[in-house]
Design a protein that fits this description.
243 residues, alpha/beta, Spore Coat Polysaccharide Biosynthesis Protein SpsA, Chain A, seven-stranded mixed sheet, two-stranded parallel ribbon
Length: 243
């Protein structure tokens, strides 16, 4: 893989399912930064034991939520020189629902586009030749959320919430410079912040819903609705809302 890639991996209480060996020996051209989001189960100790030239560790003193953990990881990677000579930086789910091998697929897919591509977003599309393992209930809820977000915010994105995304390194400030409104649906804020750039969706070849998810759909439903309204108020002007 000719391009150099840095992946920010937010972790919160992942000791029981973090495949540290795979992050410690990523495909050629990839470095990973595990951001421990105030874990209390030994995740930080596990990550530190496997730290290497291709696996960095950033501990956060307290839990700040996935969005802020990703943001802190991005800013740390830039400030520490981890992004020097790196062409793409992104974030990846710690459970490896999207395997690291998809990074090369992302980059190859982007070369099929004419002109510069600024961001590549993984998209969990059911199609022939792919292996997308997801419960029907979660798929249905995801489609409902996407439709609602599109209606409220005018987004044209099939799968904004997939936890596998890459961006040109020169977009770090634009995408991650300011704190996010939401702890969990910050992906939508990134899309709104980068409206003037060219982002594409790449259909994943492989994605598997990992069991033991720490998120309860019932518990996050109401806060998510509130966050959508707060995001709309922050990012969309009166003219945008009427368009």
């Amino acid at each position: 893989m000719p391009a150099k890639v840095c992946l920010i991996v937010p972790c919160f209480n992942e000791a029981g399912r973090l495949d540290i060996e795979r992050f410690g020996a990523p495909p050629a051209g990839i470095t990973c930064l595990l951001v421990d989001d105030g874990s209390r189960d030994g995740t930080l100790e596990l990550a530190r034991r496997h730290a290497s030239s291709t696996l960095g560790v950033l501990p956060l003193p307290q839990n700040v939520g996935k969005g802020e953990a990703v943001r802190q990881g991005m800013l740390h990677a830039r400030a520490s020189g981890l992004l020097d000579g790196v062409q793409w930086v992104g974030y990846w789910d710690a459970d490896l629902a999207t395997p690291l091998s998809e990074v090369e697929h992302f980059l190859a897919y982007a070369t099929l586009e004419s002109g510069r591509v600024d961001g590549i977003l993984g998209s969990r599309i059911y199609k022939l030749g792919s292996r997308i393992v997801r419960s029907y209930r979660r798929h249905l809820l995801g489609r409902c959320f996407t439709t609602l977000a599109a209606t409220l915010l005018g987004l044209q994105c099939y799968d904004s919430q997939c936890g596998a995304k890459l961006f040109r390194t020169d977009l770090v400030e634009a995408a991650f410079g300011e704190p996010f409104v939401s702890r969990w649906i910050f992906d939508i804020e990134i899309l709104l912040r980068l409206r003037q750039y060219r982002l594409i969706e790449c259909p994943l070849r492989e994605w598997a819903d990992v069991s033991r998810s720490k998120l309860s759909i019932v518990k996050v439903a109401a806060p998510t609705m509130v966050d959508l309204l707060r995001i709309r108020r922050r990012y969309l002007t009166t003219r945008d809302q009427g368009a």
